[in-house]
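From the methods appendix. Each design record in this collection lists the tokenized structure first, followed by the designed amino acid sequence. Records were kept in a plain field format so they could be parsed without special tools. The example shown here is representative of the layout used throughout.

RECORD:
FOLD TOKENS (276 positions):
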């Protein structure tokens, strides 16, 4: 396929049931909108372990529901939260959509980080509350690693206290808080990589994901013997990077718009595949 953009890049035939599972967190860059295309590509490889090195809000894994998965993200608080769900998390801290409570909980969360206690259950509870209540579901840290997202000012928020319904679903998956390059892969793993977009602002965790990381990623993915699928913003340099590495590219329009520059055009997304 050439560089021309097309909406209908892939057949949407799966004939599968869709699972009524709601995402647990609000997460920037979530890929629920891409799920039909991802399913089409993944289903023939269902017997392989799914590796998602940028698992974020789990919007993809919770839809693909792999038997076997290695899910990782560099954000240790996010992974800690999932690991607590695996142990059977129910939330006992007070949760209200109130700015005073929000800033008090944020202070407490940062205090746990300061004391090296960010892996305890209370940190997971606070992380969930901050994610629901903070601005736009952002998860941003300052350069010292402290959470600094302001209050979200939503009209209403639905807080969940009992995560037991998710426990069975995710308990068979392995979660790791790490940079993608540290993962130990099996040659038959199916990798779906959804890195931070190639844009200037990519501060999900305290480490930024810059151009060097995009290059590091394509080099790492190129070495993998099994099937690889990656999504990213279709910038010129990303297209060139993956074309040069021998990936097959498909284009589509993302529902989000390019607005930080005042441009209201729909963002262009690229799916790059290898070994599929
Ligand atoms: C676009 S989001 C992934 C969204 C996810 N696919 C979803 O649907 O929710 C990118 C993720 O990459 C993570 N990340 C950033 N740098 C990373 C790195 N070097 N290694 C692993 N994960 C990283 C961020 O914490 C963020 O959760």
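DESIGN:
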């Amino acid at each position: 396929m050439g560089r021309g953009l097309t909406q209908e890049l892939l057949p949407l035939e799966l004939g599968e049931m869709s699972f009524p599972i709601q995402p647990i967190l609000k997460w920037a860059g979530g890929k629920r909108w891409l799920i039909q295309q991802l399913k089409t590509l993944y289903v023939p490889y269902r017997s392989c372990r799914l590796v998602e090195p940028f698992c974020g809000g789990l919007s993809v894994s919770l839809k693909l529901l792999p038997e076997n998965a290695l899910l990782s993200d560099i954000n240790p608080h996010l992974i800690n939260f999932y690991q607590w769900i695996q142990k059977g998390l129910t939330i006992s801290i007070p949760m209200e959509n109130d700015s005073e409570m929000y800033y008090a909980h944020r202070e407490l969360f940062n205090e746990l980080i300061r004391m090296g206690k960010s892996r305890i259950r209370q940190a997971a509870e606070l992380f969930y509350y901050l994610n629901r209540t903070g601005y736009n579901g952002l998860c941003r840290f300052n350069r010292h690693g402290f959470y600094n997202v302001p209050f979200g000012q939503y009209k209403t928020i639905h807080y969940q206290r009992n995560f037991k319904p998710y426990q069975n679903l995710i308990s068979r998956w392995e979660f790791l808080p790490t940079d993608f390059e540290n993962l130990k892969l099996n040659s038959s793993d199916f990798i779906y990589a959804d890195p931070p977009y190639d844009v200037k602002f990519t501060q999900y965790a305290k480490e930024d994901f810059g151009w060097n990381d995009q290059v590091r990623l394509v080099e790492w993915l190129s070495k993998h013997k099994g099937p690889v699928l990656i999504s990213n913003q279709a910038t010129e340099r990303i297209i060139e990077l993956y074309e040069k590495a021998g990936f097959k590219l498909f284009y589509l329009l993302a529902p989000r718009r390019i607005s930080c520059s005042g441009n209201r055009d729909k963002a262009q997304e690229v799916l790059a595949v290898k070994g599929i």
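APPENDIX NOTE: The chain is about 30% helix and 15% strand.
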